[in-house]
Amino acid sequence: MKEVELSFSGRQGLALLLPARGEKVGMRGPIRESEPVETPPHRAEFRFSYVPCRPLPARGARDAGCPPRRLLAGLAFVALLALSLGFDRAAAQTPSPHGVVVAQEARAAQIGVEVLKRGGNAVDAAVATGFAMAVTYPRAGNLGGGGYMLIHRAGRRDVAIDYRETAPAAATRDMFLDQNGEADPRKSRDTALAIGVPGTVAGLALAQARYGSGKLSLAELIAPAIALARDGLPIEDDVAESLPGSARRLGRWPSAAKIFLKPDGRALGPGDRLIQSDLADTLEAIAHGGARAFYEGAIADKLVAAVRAEGGIMSGDDLKGYRPLLREPVRGHYRG
What we know:
By secondary structure, this protein is an alpha+beta fold. It is built from 12 helices and 12 strands. It has helices at 89-92, 106-117, 122-136, 185-190, 200-211, 218-231, 237-250, 254-260, 277-289, 292-295, 298-309, 316-320; strands spanning 2-7, 14-17, 23-27, 49-53, 63-64, 80-85, 99-103, 147-152, 159-163, 233-234, 273-274, 325-327. Strands 2, 3, 4, 5, 7, 8, 9 and 12 form an 8-stranded mixed β-sheet that branches. Strand 8 and strand 9 form a beta hairpin. Helix 2 packs antiparallel against helix 3, helix 3 packs parallel to helix 6 (218-231) and helix 6 runs antiparallel to helix 9 (277-289).
């Protein structure tokens, strides 16, 4: 019996399956609540793009799907779906020429597929897909969030990378309370006080450096995302559906309005093209300078200035001091 695990989460979903030697990697998107287990959401808005990859060079087919965590941003929450395929144990240890990338956005998933075809492993594909979703899935896949990545490598110790956002050093226990000492949802959801120190860039960079195949550099994995941001992509599918509902909120910030809204204040729609030049510049800086180019220097200075201008408390030291953590995965059994 061979198991292939496919992991989900409520926001940015990404799963990679390479039925080879049982190696897996999972990613999960930005989620706020701290729940020990999160069941897969069954809502129409959560659509997953399944893109098969074939054929994959045998020497590159080493990694498999994803376990109890999908990750790209989260505390300890996990959404998991395990699919059992009827193969004997010997067959399960045979490298496979096939691979699968699953994500909530098809273009990003296809970028992961291309990485596998070029000989990259599942971690490489996860990193490339994660950066691509920062461009193609703006309502959830972004550089300003955080996540978890759970990696299983055949014959080696499993590892979890925790790159969830952290609270700024100046955060206090009462910062989201009103004058009566009651919780104020507006402060925790709709103000700059709610902005945490982002972990996505550091987490994905660490994953590539430690667990990637070594065949593809971080710059090569980010390159497709840069091209998409600079050249643009058509407004369709989830972006076309979600933007109108966010237009009023996006209009509060001129920098966001010029990207996602038309001059008359209406959201971009089918027939329009989403071009994100500033994001392309940021991705390019990360590609050339690594994660530190995001957490220190000009980009960090602009982030801090923008957050503080809106009443937030994140500082340059918060960004400079951010580090993803390696954790021991939690293990459990289901029905024996």
